[in-house]
Amino acid sequence: LTLFASCAAQRGTFPDEGDGDRQPGGVGGEGQLQQLPLTPVDVDFVDPDTGFVVTENGQLAKTDDGGKSWHLVHEFNEHIAEIDFVSSSVGWAMAQDGIWSTTDSGASWTKVPTPFLPGFVDLTGETVAWAIDHELQLFYTLDGGINWERKVSPCSSIETLASWSASFISSHEGWFICGSDEGMGGQSKTLLRTEDAAATWEVVAAIERDQEESQGSLPAGGYVADLFFLDRNTGWFATSRYGEVWTTQDGGASWHQVNEAPPGVQAFVRLDFVSKQVGWGFLS
Fold first, then answer.
1. What secondary structure does DSSP assign to 23-41, as a single string?
2. 60 pairs with which residues across the strands?
3. Confidence band for 209, pLDDT divided at 50, 70 and 90
4. How are beta strands 279-283 and 161-168 bridged, if at all?
5. What is the pTM of this model?
């Protein structure tokens, strides 16, 4: 797991409509960066060598050598909160007031029509994506955002919801983890899974804040930070406060801890994996 130190990502505002024609550059000469751009707010790799980061000031940088060097590919006029690429060419970027798409590795961007203000986006195919608005309503599209279908978020029914995270791997399969009743360094957590495009949700693991942890259970300690599934069996869950990362190999039914947090770390605010062994994360 490669660790990038950063402060917690903040939601940004949308870039100008004409920003797709801007040419990046002005940092490090000819758009080259010899170290990780500061301060990053999100990271996304599509294979062990190829990845993207977006910075606090709206710079999008790409690496082709696993992060040893970076080159600027675009500069947004405003902050971008999240990026998600499904290939070295195709990706989406989420701003406070909308979603943008690229098919040329981030050189130019086109606004994706959305009937909501996005707070989360997960691109699972070139035209397939899931999104969540600021009221925790769930949507998905099969045609690149031309049409959106509203679904029910399983966390919206929890009265004391304090935090959540979600991860989708296809047009029909995904997970939500809902955190509630936080306090005393711990939190009740419920992990749910859908295999029918969010028509139904099944609880696959749960733990109460004051419940004693058993082997294979979700952790009661720490708060929900991030959730990432690589395939229908393999996933990771990160906690804030204690900065732990947990992994599952059975779709979320059982979990085991894979790290001890570095000194001073409170949270993994982003997780991203390209295989069972290779991944990246942001720490705060």
1. PP--SSSTTEESS--SSEE
2. 54, 74
3. very high
4. unpaired
5. 0.87
